[in-house]
Amino acid sequence: MKRRHNPYLWSIPLGLLLVVILIPYVWIVLASLKERSDLLTTPPRWIFDLTFENYRQILSEKNFDTYLVNSLIIGFCSTALAVTVGTLAAYAFSRFKVPAGNHIFFYILATRLGPPVAYALPMYLVFFKLGLLNLQAGVILAHATFNLVLVVWMMKSFFDDIPREIEEAAYLDGCSPFQVFRMISLPLTYPGLVTVAIFVLIFSWNELLFALILSAGEMRTLTVMIPSLVLHTGTLWGQVAAASVVQSLPVLVFTFFIQKHLVRGLTFGAVKG
Amino acid sequence: MSGVRLESLCKSFGDITAVDNVDLTVADGEFVVLVGPSGCGKTTTLRMLAGLEDCSSGRIFIGDREVTDVHPKDRNIAMVFQSYALYPHKTVAQNLGFALKIAKRPRDEIERRIRDVAEILGIEDLLDRKPAKLSGGQRQRVAVGRAIIRNPEIFLFDEPLSNLDAKLRTTTRSELIKLHKRLNATMVYVTHDQVEAMTMGDRIVVMEGGLVQQIGTPLEIYDDPDNRFVAGFIGSPAMNFFRAQIVVDASGCEARFADASLKLPETHPSASRADVVLGVRPEHLVIAPEFKTGVQFQATIEAVEHLGAETLVELGLEGEALTMRAGRLENIAPDQSVRVGAQAEHVLVFDAADGRRLRPQNGAGP
Amino acid sequence: MGGAQARASKRFMWVCMAPVIVFLIVVSLAPTIVAIIDSLRELSLTVFTKRGAFIGLENYRELLSEDTKFFTAIWKTVIFVAVVVPFEFVFGLTIALYINHEFAGRRLLITLLMLPTMIAPVVVGMMWRYLLMPSFGLVTYYLQQMGFLAETTIFSDEVTAFAALMIIDIWEWTPFMMLIMLAGLTAMPEEPIEAAHLDGANAWQVLWHVQLSFLRPLIVFAVMFRAIEASKVFDTIYILTGGGPGNATETIAVFAFRTTFIKWDLGYGAAICLVLAFFSLVVAALFFKVSNRAQEQ
Questions:
Q1: How large is the ipTM?
Q2: How far apart are alpha carbons C207 and C224 in whole angstroms?
């Protein structure tokens, strides 16, 4: 709508909205920089002496780096797996008549729509029997599974956007179907592919339930580690805050760069934004 | 280089027959144009020839080799698409060299051939650009370049000029003709534009409803169409048609419409019919004819279009509109009633039911 | 008759599909079969006598006819979804309409507004746990100062605990609704709106008759999508209340998790999971239709 706005009047409700949305996060960022004595006070303390002690502590005492590395390994491996498997399937769905294609796609969709618990337990039963629980493999497979529909759906729409004639020209230039895919169609979707990969990475990075159920001990991820700082003797709020900030900051940076595709990504490809 | 032979080629999509029993032989080095309205099967025929579409039945030969069941990449065919289908992520040079790269030619050979082709087409300055940065005419050249760089046995063109503006289309048309002469290559060209067909083709194949209607040189097709469809499709403005009754009496056989009558030889096949359709090209109609043979009738001038060198006159005859094309005419105005005629040799006779051309049995006359 | 081209394409199609088929069999189909078998057995780690014995459909019978906690959890989930989704929709739509025009810094603003949705639910949970701590929490403190809250703990009272979880969910997911509605509004052509204005419609009439009716397929999709996602809520509840006090905030996902991994009744848990998976198949079929329609738009 092109109505004239008074920019100052218009931005007042927006400012209030931003306060409601951002204050909780700002508060946790501030908490991560507080001394222990400034964390739990009445009234809450807005002005305090800055310290990086919390960050130092999680790194030195809590094996934070191990969990960080776990989260990264799981994130990148599951992304690579989901993107590879999903992109190939998306290309088949886009270009060829896949027998029972609708059923296969529906099955992929269903794995994402059901409650993760319902899929985590069956995986647990199998991975337990296979002894995968003490490896990152279980979580990698689980994350790849539940992100598969996003990859297939989004990549299919990117492939659909490539005119058929371009592929036909490549066939006449002497390409086999694999060469057409590898040298023409796939490179044309690279920008989309990067976006999809970022989404999968974020979803894996943020995921709790599968990571909680399918990993143990040294193999746990950041999202599992953060709640474990809640101890019976009291919560280490400074460290919780520091770990939360480290976990969430990269997500926010990436969000800014993939903003154009957020709608597609968050609806795992169902809505074109 | 080699020719092409299509034998009883058919293609159906479900219940729809797109290409119906097409036979065609293209000689080595010949430029053949497939022309017809959209949906006539010309593009499907071309795509089957390229191998992009399977044939439902029939056989395809390139040279002496049957390629009916050969993958497009092994047919040694190049095609220029209507949309050009350039690879958007590759530069012009990479677009040109792609086929050679796939064929694993040595790098210096690829570079040399890219330069040669770019020189022929005058696109040396564009080699480092991506297709998105090219004008329509430049893209068209790159698409042609991508075809000629491979030195294929056959060139296929699928309406390659339809995305260009009118002026560019005319110049590109003559460039393609020159290119054909220079390469002396076998080319099959699809278009819906009969002007392109007439000006470019060594031979024209007119298609309609999946069937080949007529094959011939442009002038053969123009002067001696096999049926009413071909007569009406080729030529602009289109041929005029009159429905006429056949009267056979003591004086012989006559075709009559309005106040006109056309004497036909008694051996003419139309003698056995009740009515026929007569066709006359606009340039063969004359006002106030001085000749006595042929047909003459009274018509009203409905509109006059002065094109400068020539004049188009729209005539009304019993509610039907006719078009006449003549040299410059200055002394006529709408609403005049005029006497119009055409020489007998310029009147073509068609079967009223199936549109087939009715030729005199002795081969002479109309 | 298939040409060489068709055969080569078909071969390559199977090359493309093979990984996904193998993958689904390994991580999805095989586990489901194992779960089906295990759901027919006594696998509670607290029962020692019959461990591993096949007990037929006993787990299902118990779940569907005796387990009141199961039905309570479903009921809680329904309430949760029925409360949060309408709020998220109305708030999201309002914000989307409010910022539906070009202005400087729009991209940054949207990124900031998306923060609650994009950060990990674990972090959301921990953040609010800190904000809602008795006495010391930022929100608790100011609410008490303003007299909205008595000197109690939010998460020890059944009603306030559940309400708090709902508010957090609304905080977390309203931006998502806003984003979808914004996408729909952006895709909407200007002409019908201008035509309606020329026809003398006021702003409300334009909103109702033009914009919302244009958005309808997308709204149906978004509400359904959020309802499905909200019914799976787990992370924040796990962090904030663990389902308590008692089982006041035990939604279906939390119930399934607790039964399986806190009480370690794997056979019974498998039965729960399969019942849920079956429901989600039905839901997925519905969703498939709706999203296809939204995509056509």
A1: 0.88
A2: 22
CA A153 centroid distance within chain: 16
Fold of C70-296: MetI-like fold (1.10.3720)
- The C-alpha atoms of residue C142 and residue A16 are separated, in whole angstroms, by 16
Farthest-apart Cα atoms in chain B, separation = 83
The pTM is what? 0.86
How far from the centroid of its chain's Cα atoms is residue C6's Cα? 43
The answer, for C228 touching chain A at a CB cutoff of 8 Å, is yes
- C-alpha B143/C-alpha C127 separation (Å) is 59
CA geometry: angle A107, A113, A118, nearest 5 deg: 90
Contact A169 B82 (CB under 8 A): no
The CATH architecture annotation of domain A61-266 reads Orthogonal Bundle (1.10)
Domain boundaries of chain A, sorted by first residue? 61-266
Q: Which two tokens stand for residue A262?
A: 């957020």
Per the listing, tokens 């560019």 go with B168
Tens of pLDDT, residue by residue over B13-41, are: 888 899 999 999 999 999 999 999 998 99
Q: What angle do CA B93, A91, B101 make, to 5 degrees?
A: 25
Rounded to a whole number of angstroms, the distance between the first and last alpha carbons of chain A is 19
d(CA B198, CA A12): 71
Residue C198 bridge partners (DSSP)? none
Measuring CA to CA, how many Å separate B172 from each of B164, B196, B237? 9, 11, 23
Residue B12 exposed, middle or buried by CB count within 10 Å (0-12, 13-18, 19+): middle
- Reported as a single tens digit per residue, the pLDDT across A191-232 is 889 999 999 999 999 999 888 888 877 788 889 988 888 877
Instruction: Work out the burial of residue C290: count CB atoms within 10 Å of its CB; fewer than 13 is exposed, 13-18 middle, 19 or more buried.
Output: middle
CA distance A146 to A110: 9
Q: Where are the alpha helices (DSSP H) in chain A?
A: 7-32, 36-39, 53-61, 64-95, 101-113, 116-130, 137-160, 164-172, 177-179, 186-188, 190-206, 209-214, 222-225, 237-257, 262-266
Domain residue ranges of chain C, discontinuous segments joined by +:
70-296
Domains of chain B as residue ranges with CATH:
4-232 (3.40.50.300), 238-363 (2.40.50.140)
Which residues of chain A have a CB within 8 Å of the CB of B89?
187-188, 190
Cα B245 to Cα B262: distance, rounded to the nearest angstrom: 10
Torsion of Cα atoms, A158 then A161 then A162 then A168, to 10°: 120
* Beta carbons of C5 and B74 less than 8 Å apart: no
Collapsing DSSP to helix, strand or coil, C199 comes out as coil
CA distance linking residue A11 with residue C27, whole number of Å: 50
pLDDT tens across B217-234, in order? 999 999 999 999 999 999
- With residue B4 as reference, give the H or E element that holds it: strand B4-13
Amino acid at B294: G
User: Among residues A179, C2, A169, which one has the least CA distance to residue B53?
Assistant: C2
- Closest alpha carbon within chain C to B57: C1
Q: How far apart are CA C73 and CA C66, in angstroms?
A: 13
CA-closest candidate to residue A126, choices A141, A147, A107: A141
Per-residue pLDDT reduced to its tens digit, B261-304? 888 877 788 777 888 899 999 999 988 888 877 888 889 999 99
Nearest to B51 among C1, C2, C3 (CB): C3
Q: Do C5 and B55 touch (CB under 8 A)?
A: no
Q: What is the DSSP secondary structure assignment for residue B124, as one 8-state letter?
A: G
**Most distant CA atoms of chain A, gap in Å:** 76
Q: Does residue B54 belong to the interface with chain A, where contact is any CB pair within 8 Å?
A: no
Which positions in chain A touch B79 (Cβ < 8 Å)? Answer: 168-169, 172
Structure tokens at A222: 């950041």
